[in-house]
Amino acid sequence: MCGIVGYLGKRNATPIVIEGLKRLEYRGYDSAGLAIIDTEGDLKVFREEGKIIDLERIMPAPEKSFGNTGIGHTRWATHGEPTVANAHPHICCRNQIAVVHNGIIENYKLLKKKLISEGHIFVSDTDSEVLAHLIGYFYEAEHDLVTAVKEALKLVEGTYGIAVICSDNPDLIVAARKGSPLILGIGNDEFFITSDVSAIIIHTKKVIYLHDDEVVSVTKENFEITNIDNEVVKAKISEIDWEVSSIEKGDFKHFMLKEIFEQPTSVENAFRGRLDHKLSTVKLGGLNMTPDEFRNIEKIQIIACGTSWHSALIGKYVIESLARISVEVEYASEFRYKNPIIPPGTIVIVVSQSGETADTLAALREARTRGVKVFGITNVIGSSIARETDGGVYIHAGTEIGVASTKAFTSQVTVLTLLGVLLGRMKHLAPTYGKKFLEELKMIPNKISEILENNHYIRNIADTIKSSTNALYLGRGFNYPVALEGALKLKEISYIHAEGYPAAEMKHGPIALIDKNMPVIAIALKDEIYDKIISNLAEVKARNGRIITIATRGDDSVQDFSENVIYIPETIDVLQPLLSVVPLQLLAYHVADLRELNVDQPRNLAKSVTVE
Ligand code: M6R
Fold first, then answer.
1. Domain spanning 454-600: which CATH class is it, in words?
2. Which residues contact 53 (CB under 8 A, 6 or more apart)?
3. Which of 341, 433, 452, 602 has the fewest CB atoms within 10 Å around its CB?
4. Ligand 1 neighbour 307 (Cβ under 6 A)
5. Ligand 1 touching residue 481 (CB < 6 A)
6. How far away, in angstroms, is 357 Cα from ligand 1 center?
7. What CATH architecture applies to the domain 244-451?
């Protein structure tokens, strides 16, 4: 979604901001812009629809757009189409103040009406432009940019991460946040503002994560953080602990492919240091819970969106099976508006790769308002969800750039499975099971590597289905959510309509769609319900369906009804999703690539959905 980059220092801000914006491209956007205060002290603004490369085309050479202070923005349209007029930065009527904004100003219509009645002229359809005029309005009265920003923000309802510059103060950036991430980067005699550390990590690893209602004023020499009521805030400087290489593609054609191939390592990172071989169990210290508190859990509600919702659903199957605790899985967007029933003894877990998904964050807040303990399973350290929960577990998947989530999914599933074992062992699960689980889990990274060796074979299968218009994914039990995830992967990057179903449900409707043209991708692994799914696939075969089967290595019988079989290594039931999803990720990737689509930045999608 929208991204912010700002620079203030001795270097030319323009190339730094442009480079930072390029690093944010993965988040999804449809227009971009940049404002600098040049050496003459003039505010220069450049905006363009499309990609950063289009913005660069309309800009003068960097030496001709020199200035030490600059802010830039990638916009993912919410209010108003992706046009030049709607792109950020927005400027005040006097052409002095430029503002970039992430989030949504909910009362913008009211504010806009008032400002128009005061003579302000608006040129865009956005909610964000109101901020430029409002700050301009207070600046005229106060002649102090920090005060003007605070006064303006006091009138605003909604969410924002903003960065503001003013040609009267060429050596100043004012930035503020509420509900939308904003980070101050501290370099050597230079500062950065960003909504995502990926934009600035090549310059500095020292950062301050701003909290809601905080305002930072940055000059070339220093910075000060205050809250909206002018109290000085003592901020904590954090060190980013990942490398620039993690946000570069290396030899891979796309980030998504790189991230699929990183899974042997990312899954291992999700369980490293969390296995207790002595007691044949698992440790998840970040939950800050005593054994008694664990034992007193009567119900779990897991809240998430998209792929994270699918991993949550696997979590339900695992926890219910191993710990016999009832688990409800909710879409965050539904939970937050439905007056949810949260019985005593319930804990809530929110699952989010980014830790910034607006609906998940709102659901978390709603649950906490009701006095329930909320735990987070997130990837991004210091994210809003990580900070606002009562405790949590980082999945340590490393930066995920591809919009289609892959390695974060398997890492989430790993952590949820660990939780299932932990809760199970607290209750009735035998140590022999715990021991077997730990042994099997340790073999998973190698088994994923073995599946990845089939990459070329899977690409050949992808070639046979790349022109399909529909696809059906079937699975049962632990692999039913994997079928949902496989279908989501295919539709979001290849734009082929795909549905995931519990295999037996097929005969209650979707079977009507089956013909020789529609690929049916079935997960039919050797487990307790193997025979059941084989019967379901016989029904597909009887209707001339073309079946691609994910099967357990050595199972020859599936050959009879399958057009193609992708074999994966055997493991225990609860760990199957960590293996069965990998060929589905590769299949979706290759279909999209063979269709010559923009795999890493599929149309209309954003990496982190920070608006409702
Ligand atoms: O960052 P989150 O895990 O909260 O994001 C949730 C969804 O927006 C995300 O999983 C989305 O569905 C992905 N594009 C899936 O690949």
1. alpha beta
2. none
3. 341
4. yes
5. no
6. 8
7. 3-Layer(aba) Sandwich (3.40)
